Amino acid sequence: MNTLHAKVNCSANFIVIALLPLLFFVTMLAGYFGFIPLNIPLYTLVYIGFIFLVFLLFIKHNANYAACKMRGTQLEMESSLKKELIAKSLTLGEESKSILDIDKFLNHFYIDVRNDNFVSVASSIFPMLGILGTFVAMAISMPNFSASSADALDSEISTLLSGVGSAFFASIYGIFLSLLWTYFEKRGLSKIDNYFHNIETLFASHIWSEDELSIHQHSKSDLEENRFLSALKETFDLSFIRDINQQQLEAFKEVMHESNQNFTLLANTIDQVSQQIQGSLAIIDQSTTAVAAQNQIKSQLERFVTATEALEKSTKLYAGQMDTTLHKSFEKIDTEIGDIVVKLADFATHVSAESSEVQKSIRKYHQTIANHTREK
């Protein structure tokens, strides 16, 4: 037993439980010494004394005795209980209470007050010991029945009946102890239940009830759902993509306008060069002057090369502007997507499927832009 519980003095409860069995044993003792008209042989008295000793050993495990031990350590128990309440406190909103199960705490705190194994067999062991004592007394008092005369036989029968009658006192005593034990056990359990109930009532205001926890759980679920929906709306607000598309469209218009001008100039230059080359060929056909025609053809070819180089520069400029525009667009997209990933981090468990779909769409968008760039 715990030293704390062992210090509690419950001798009064011990005496109350043992009083009636003690009076019964004293009565048997008075019969043995002839103070009262009871024929109690020595072996019966000894066996009843043995049963009484066993009962005394069991008294410390009776619920009525254990209830006294529990009440004697109430202050220490409350001190330990307050520490456990603080250790298992939970703050919900602006209020803090504990989630401790007081009933389990009390059962654990008083687990060593008594031995449940002794309690489970006590109510049945005393009648069994009494019946055993009866058969032992009968066996001891059984005569040999070897008398040769009727008077001797009557004497032996009288001795047998006297021994049988005294032997039944052991069974009576065992049944009496069993009833007495059951009475004090039930009474003690009632005291323990009331004691536990009073403790639970006293600290009820410091414990979260199941209803309060259930209400908070539902409120928390609703709040998380609202936050989740708000985050989804904010995350999938693709207005920045519309801005990117508008900027991209303006850049394309500007590039296409410059490219159109360059192609128009190039087409006019090539047309002029073509007409001059045709004129030069006509001169050659007319054989007016070969040298002049050769010089004119050379001059036109140089102009054609110049026009071609201009076309190449225009094409490179167009490609460079396209790359710059697309690079800026992709940087903008990457920045916005980075913000999306940060926002979705708190809700990854809820939107894993949606996140996967978004990533697939982004990769497809990049692939489409890349293919479009290569085609250009």
Strand content: under 5%
Number of strands: 2
Shape: rod-shaped
Helix content: over 70%
Structural class designation: mainly alpha
Through-space gap between termini: 91 Å
Please give the structural blueprint:
Blueprint: H1 3-6, H2 11-32, H3 42-59, H4 63-72, H5 74-87, E1 89-92, E2 95-98, H6 102-109, H7 116-141, H8 150-202, H9 210-235, H10 239-286, H11 290-344, H12 352-375
Antiparallel strand pairs: 1-2
Helix pairs in contact: 2-3, 3-7, 3-8, 4-8, 7-8, 10-11
Brief write-up:
Helix content is 82%, strand content 2%. The chain is mainly α and 376 residues long.
Describe it:
The chain has helices at 3-6, 11-32, 42-59, 63-72, 74-87, 102-109, 116-141, 150-202, 210-235, 239-286, 290-344, 352-375; strands spanning 89-92, 95-98. With 376 residues, the chain is mainly α. The protein folds into 2 domains: 3-208; 228-375, no CATH class. The model has no long low-confidence stretch (mean pLDDT 74).
Main features:
2 domains; 376 residues; 2 strands; 12 helices; mainly alpha; two-stranded antiparallel ribbon
